[in-house]
Amino acid sequence: MSGGAAVLVLGIGNVLWADEGFGVRAVTRLHARHAFPPSVRLMDGGTQGMYLLPHIAAAEVLVIIDAVDYGLALGTLHIVRDAEVPRFLGVKHMSLHQTGFQEVLGMAELLGCAPRTMLLVGVQPVDIEAYGSGLTPPVAACIDPACDIVLDFVAGMGFAVEPRTGTPDPLAPHSVIGGDGVALFDVPRPCA
User: Fold this and answer.
1) Does the structure show a pLDDT above 70 at 1?
2) Domain that holds residue 120
3) For tag attachment on the chain, is the N or C end more exposed, with fewer CB atoms within 10 Å?
C-alpha cells in the first residue's frame, strides 16, 4: 500500500489541561524524532472538532492519539480499531473535544467519506483537570510506547519511516505535517 494511501496521524487534546494533552504531545514527539513520507501526515488537531472534518475526509487511514477514559487502570495504554473507535471516544466524555470528535467521525460516516481504516491509541488519564501542569508521570511514560505503536502500524502498511536527522521545525498548533515539512495544500471539501 506504500505511496498510495493518505494516512493522517492525528493528536487531539488540550496541552493546557494535564493528561488531556497526551495526543498532541505524542504527535509532536513523532514529528521530532521521525521523518515520514509525504503520504503520511501528522497533525496537531488540538480541540478543533468539526474543523477537522476536511482532513479526516481526505484520509484513507486515520490514526488517533488521545487521552480516553476506558475505565482501565490509570496510565494504561489501550488500542481500538476501525468500527470500535467512535464507540470508545464516546464512552465517557472527559472534555469537550471528545464530544466534538465523535461527532466529526459520525459526520464523515454520514457523508460517506469516513476513513476506511482507523486506529485509536489511547491512554487512561490520571488527571485532566490540573491547568498548566503537564502530563502526569504515568501518562508521560506512555508517550514513547504510543509512538512505537503508531510507527509499527504505519510501517506495517508499507510506509518507510526513518529516524530524523537534524532538528525539525517545531510542530505548530493545529498544523499539518507531511513528510519533512508543513504540508501547504488546499483543504479538501468533505467527500469532494
Assistant:
1) no
2) 7-164
3) C
